[in-house]
Design goal:
By secondary structure, the chain is α+β, with helices and mostly antiparallel strands. It has helices at 28-38, 77-85, 99-108; strands spanning 18-24, 45-49, 54-61, 64-71, 88-96, 119-121, 124-129, 138-143. It is built from three helices and eight strands. It has an eight-stranded mixed sheet with strand order 2-3-4-1-5-8-7-6.
Length: 144
Amino acid sequence: MVGIPGGVPDALRALGRIHHVAVIVRDIDDALAVWRDLLGLPVELVLPIASDGVTIAFLPVGESKIELVCPTDPSTGVARFLDTKGEGFHHVCLEVPDLAAALDDLASRGAELVDRAPRRGAEGPVAFLHPRTGRGVLIELIEA
């Protein structure tokens, strides 16, 4: 792992597939008109997540998914991201077999964590690594 001494952490050695790539959008229906209607991807799930102030949609493509993320609360980090950077790529989500162990290992190696412990996500426990750790990319880990 570049920037983290000692190579690949043991907790990440069994790193799974890319679970999803997230795209921030202003309007979930307008975004679905592109991803579902124009590109023909099936919609697996559309879900408001009040605790995060977003509505999400998952569209499977191959073994991974596209996640559309639309802020519903203007005070959230996602809404601020949209206001400053506009629509587009937000994060990549990687599967790990044991999220708590991966976080402990990464923290011990100097990774900057957004979440120090797993939290509830739409499809299982998740946690984020700060974009400074990902060289400008927000990384989400999901226990799979």
